[in-house]
Specification:
32% of the residues lie in helices and 18% in strands. The protein is an alpha/beta fold. It folds into 3 domains: 40 residues, no CATH class; 277 residues, Rossmann fold, CATH 3.40.50; 141 residues, Rossmann fold (3-Layer(aba) Sandwich). Helix 4 packs parallel to helix 11, helix 5 crosses helix 6 and helix 10 packs across helix 11. One of its GO terms (cellular component) is endoplasmic reticulum.
Length: 569
């Protein structure tokens, strides 16, 4: 017998011995091993983004000046290239490869009406505008009717001598219409934060030199303003259906009849049905006017008035569109809900970005003051949401209090591990169905929400959100969460976390990611905090086309972390 035959005999005896000792326990062990291997192979998913892209999220300038850090920019807007200043609007007949205009608010509404321009299945698709009243009353507004209201309201206010129009309304279609009417008919829009004390409203009107107010009855201190602010010349009431039978055009005695009072419904209803259907032509239109907003700081302090150019705002809109990866950008299949005030330029820029992207937009006037996302999303199923940190923190606390069982805590741990270690969003499975009943009820159809925007407001005493809380909220809601840093003189956001950044750190306040494509950030030395070659820290300075005056000091101290993200020190 040769050596090879001996090897075969040895192998045969080993196999015979193995199967001779096979029993039910061996079967269970092998079955478990095969099952584990099959599960790992079938459920394996590549990370949503490459880890190296998270390790260096911003690009530092090659040199820095004394007393300052290097200048940090988004990786998508490297040094030597211009920052993102506009929407790249292509006029009819322009070459596909030519550079477009930066655009302004008028181009945003034209795009919303025209629909998707790119070739594909969604070509020509438009979004919808919805008003949510309660749990079942959802009203859809035809875009053609909104265009008509823009024209009729704009013409009426302009013909009555309106020049500086204060908008004192909750989140609503009428707020948006007035904003676009000011843009198309060459008036300055002044957006006042809603539900303010009488003296605060009077102060904001005086400082902004408003001559026209568009507001709702019951919320505007008419008598106080008329008696103490003689510059008011025109008032437009936005009256709900239940009060439309009353005479709102009458001016109370003692006011001298100096204020021209009318109602929104009368202005729109007095014209023929076909009037105002076409937008003013692009040819010959004047340069857009500025937009004035008021930044609400800590309670008890006077609101800061900030004047943004149309270029500032459109740059903020363009940066938010570009900040979302191409495959995940807003589109006709999305329903966008701003549950934060449109008086904040961060919320306003995102809402305008949704309109420009032909997403549907819903307005709920009670969403802002409630700080309750379940109330804000009642009656609809948004896919994209703008929420305050306070509302998100409340949602986190309520949901975490329900995770008391061992099974729920372990399922939460498994889904958190997918986020933080594997770099992927958790997906629905048979294993997680038990966990689904504990999730917050956000919208009428669970699981549709895919993206949440929130922002820290510098100096406004916003509750801090840690990276652990943000991670928990991603698991609870099943949506990605973007956390931004916003400030008074920056339209939109100065910096915000990456779309695919799910990392968790030992922090009390999460970092704010990298600058957007329209901003650059540097840190200037203070008496206590100075930049060295190994550590960049100091007062946060923001520059770019979305910044009022092109540069603003935020008045807070920040630090650039090892991954080139911005955080509070």
């Amino acid at each position: 017998m040769g050596a090879f035959d001996n090897v075969l005999l040895t192998v045969d005896e080993a196999i015979s011995d193995l199967f001779g000792q096979w029993n039910v326990h061996t079967t269970a062990i092998v079955g478990l091993f095969v099952g584990l291997v099959a599960y790992q192979i079938s459920t394996r998913r590549d990370p949503d983004t490459h880890p190296l892209l998270l390790a260096r999220q911003a690009q530092a300038s090659a040199v820095r000046h004394e007393g300052e850090s290097a200048v940090y920019r988004s990786q998508a807007a490297p040094h030597g290239m211009p920052l993102n200043a506009g929407l790249n609007v292509k006029d009819p007949g322009a070459s596909k490869w030519s550079r477009g205009r930066d655009g302004d608010l008028r181009d945003i509404w034209r795009q919303a009406v025209a629909g998707v321009q790119d070739d594909g299945d969604t070509k020509g698709a438009t979004g919808r505008l919805l008003t949510v009243l309660g749990t079942e009353n959802v009203t859809e507004h035809a875009l053609a009717d909104i265009t008509r209201q823009i024209n009729l309201i704009g013409q009426h206010v302009a013909n009555q001598g309106g020049n500086r129009v204060a908008i004192y309304l909750p989140n609503s279609v009428e707020l948006l219409v007035t904003l676009f009417a000011c843009a198309f008919y060459n008036m300055t829009a002044i957006i006042l934060p809603f539900d303010q004390p009488d003296d605060a409203v009077l102060s904001m009107l005086r400082r902004s030199a408003a001559d026209t107010v568009v507001t709702a009855p019951g919320s505007f201190p008419f008598d106080t303003v008329v008696k103490n602010y003689p510059s008011l010349r025109q008032l437009v009431w936005v009256v709900d259906e239940g009060s439309s039978h009353m005479d709102w055009n009458e001016v109370p005695q003692g006011t001298g009849g100096s204020v021209n009072v009318s109602t929104w419904q009368d202005i729109v209803g007095d014209y023929p049905v076909d009037a105002g259907r076409d937008l003013p032509p692009y040819e010959g239109q004047k340069d857009p006017r500025d937009i004035t907003v008021f930044w609400q700081a800590a309670p008890g302090t006077t609101e800061e008035m900030v004047r943004f150019t149309a270029a500032n705002l459109v740059s903020a809109v363009a940066a938010q569109i570009f900040a979302i990866p191409t495959a995940q950008r807003m589109g006709p299949s999305d329903l966008f809900l701003p549950a934060d005030s449109l008086a904040n330029t961060h919320t306003l820029a995102l809402t305008l970005a949704a309109l420009y992207s032909n997403a549907s937009v819903a307005f709920n006037s009670v969403a802002v003051g409630a700080n309750d996302l379940a109330v804000a999303t009642r009656g609809i199923s948004p896919t994209i949401l703008v929420a305050t940190p306070a509302a998100l923190l409340k949602t986190h606390q309520e949901t975490a209090s329900q995770l008391s069982s061992l099974i729920a805590r372990n399922l939460h741990w498994l889904q958190t591990r997918d986020l933080t270690q594997k770099g992927v969003m958790p997906v629905a499975s048979l294993l997680t169905r038990y966990y689904d009943r504990l999730r917050p009820a956000l919208g009428g159809t669970p699981g549709k929400l895919r993206l949440v925007f929130t922002a820290e407001r510098v100096g406004a005493a916003s509750p801090p959100l840690s990276s652990a809380v943000l991670s928990d909220l991603r698991v609870y809601t099943g949506a990605r969460i973007i956390y931004a840093l916003t400030a008074a003189k920056v339209a939109g956001a100065a910096a915000q976390t990456g779309f695919y950044d799910y990392r968790v750190f030992d922090d009390a306040h999460s970092h704010f990611g990298a600058p957007l494509t329209n901003t650059e950030i540097l840190l200037k030395d203070t008496a206590e905090h100075k930049t060295t070659d190994s550590l960049s820290k100091g007062e946060i300075i923001v520059r770019g086309p979305s910044v009022a005056g092109n540069e603003a000091a935020l008045g807070v101290v920040g630090v650039i972390r090892d991954d080139n993200t911005l955080a509070y020190l």
